[in-house]
Amino acid sequence: MAAVAAMAAVAKSQFPGTFNTLDVSFRPPPGEQRLRESSSGVVVVVEPLPPPERPAEEPRECAPPGPDPEEEETDAKPAGYHDHGDDDTPEPCYDVGAVKLRHLKDIVEKVVKEHKTFCVEGAYNHIRNAMKKRGWLEKSEQVWPSKRLKENTSGLQSPKDKNPALISRMLRNIQVDFLWTSRAYSSHWYDFRRRQIVSRFPRTGFNTKVGLCSSLQQQHWYYEEGVSNTLFPRCYNIYNTEELEAFKDDFHMTASISLLKWLVDNYENKKDKAVSSTDGKIPVAAVEFAISRCDEYVSVQTHEDLDHEVCGQTWDHQWDQFLTWYYMAVHKNERLAQAPEPSMLLLYNLAVHTLEKVQKHWSQMHLDGMLNVWIVKPGANSRGRGIQLMNRMEKVLAKVNPAFVKETRYVVQKYIERPLLIYNTKFDIRQWFLVTCVQPMTIWMYRESYLRFCSQCFDLLNFHESVHLCNNAVQRKYRNGVRDPKLPDENMWDCYTFQAYLRTLGKAEMWSQRIYPGMCQGIVGALLASQENIDGKSNCFELFGADFILDEAFTPWLIEINSCPSMCESTSVTARMCPQCLEDVIKVHQFPAWPVFRRLFNGKVTQRKSGGRQTVEQEGRHWHVRAHIQTAPPSRSSVPWRLSVHSRSEGEQDRHGENR
Length: 660
Known about the structure:
Largest sheet: 5 strands, antiparallel
Shape: elongated
CATH class of the largest domain: Alpha Beta
Strand order of the largest sheet: 15-14-13-16-17
Number of helices: 18
């Protein structure tokens, strides 16, 4: 450009008349500078190039309101996409006529007046279909990535139906009347209207392992035979110093009982040779120590320590030495050292007598086995994440040491070492129940449940999660091991298959007389113990999933309660049960607790009174309802409560009408 300016100066000095009307002051043009030759000489012309031509813009077509399932995946906005606030996001274009638009507006206005608008967050398409079948309109709020949208839009709309997104656009300023969500909305509860139905309680407490453990420490106050009785393996919130000390005492006592069990079991099976030998490494004092500690425990339980001091203090180093002997005997199969006094027969008789005395006060002795196995769980995790099995105290304390674990709270629960097995494989039972009211407590128990199997055979010496954790989220990561071919490949049974299995054992009555009633009583007891800690708003309900394990006597033991249980159709069992369960939830979510029962039931009403409490039972064709009214509440609570148990049989039709 300096050269061009110099040439322009030379040309101006030589041809002064040529530049009278030409401004040659240099300004950086957006285009190029060109030199042109004229008849009078060289003339420098500063001429910008024209801007580059842009391609013609294609006319914009109106996008359909929602993705077409038959079309391939694109980056289009999902169904229900609409403007949020004052952002600059362009609004979707709807190609509808004026008559159709007026018709849709009339429908929306009518539904809004009838309070029949809903929103479903997540891939609960069966909830959507059930609500739409009853004449409700959906307001789409969730914005998903295109891949997830394509996987979860089955049943939402057909390729010919382009109205849902437009209807959702019309409802953008309307607060829905029914909200199905998996989030707790802890900071938004004051924004909900009183009549707005929400599928979550603000706070329950019992749906976490820490909360359930804390609540069930008070469940004995709510025990009532045939109504409320929760069987729960011993559990401790060991982030609490007092409960940590209680866990240590429990571990010590369990080790003492286990050593005596080991002595009795080995002596009865193999006599002296399996218990003692000349090269044994465990002194007889280990057995004597265990017997002394068990006698002390019985004395405390029978209150003999009130009149006189039963024993002196047992120091930590004594327990450490005893645990070393216990590990050698039970974990490493070492033998006792032979001694002239006392004889093995005398030790055997003392051990049998001590175990008989302890069993009267140690109600879970039949669950403990001999290995003293405990299960360590993070307090708020789900789907089996972070769970480990341990049988040494030092490992447990190292895992949950407060000096190293600052954010995670752990609970330690006694592992059921002698569960009921099916073809030598462990299983648990998932039982759904619905809570529609907290004051009074109203519970709808689902009649059907399903069993979840582990992928490997049961083995107490193998602590791998595929052997002991029945969660489907855990077992689907592993291939099935060498098991009985009668077990299902997808590791699930429904309750009807399990009942057929019980008939082959000659225990056909166990399901109806012990297992199902026991699960109902366990859930009732757990919720009553947690009732004071539940933030029970009148417009809320929630579906829960309780996990039970059966012992060898077919007695159900509650393990945990989960909120937002998985309703995925991962197997043929859940593919049948989950859609029907969600359909039944919609059938009952708006029903009053007791007036509807009296109006719909034609069976007999039975009433009985016991100890200031009144139980009302009513039998129907498909339902069994039991209302438990407390007329004389215990000292811990002044609020009367009522229990309603809802049971559904397979193939039952909706007797309450389709317009609910």
